[in-house]
Amino acid sequence: MHVSRIPMPVAASLALTGTTPPAARSIWPAWLSKVLTQAAERRQLLMMEERDLRDIGLTPSEARILAQKPLWRP
Questions:
Q1: Residue 12: which residues within 8 A CB-CB, separation 6 or more?
Q2: How far apart are CA 3 and CA 47, in angstroms?
Q3: Could you report how far apart the first and last alpha carbons of the chain are, in Å?
Q4: Fewest CB within 10 angstroms: 1, 57, 59, 64, which?
Q5: Which stretches make up the YjiS-like domain (predicted)?
């Protein structure tokens, strides 16, 4: 199984109001998109079979630990 990035239409469709400072307008969607992508990749990691995990150099327990990390930790 190949871990791929899943397009996040929800993150892309978020519209910011004019009350948000200009700096936050560019940072917030990028951060949210990164977090949603990271969450999707971690879910895919949990669905991988042991054989596929060995191909990428992980054991099932290492994959479980990586997938259960909080989203604010890279």
A1: 29, 33
A2: 10
A3: 22
A4: 57
A5: 41-64
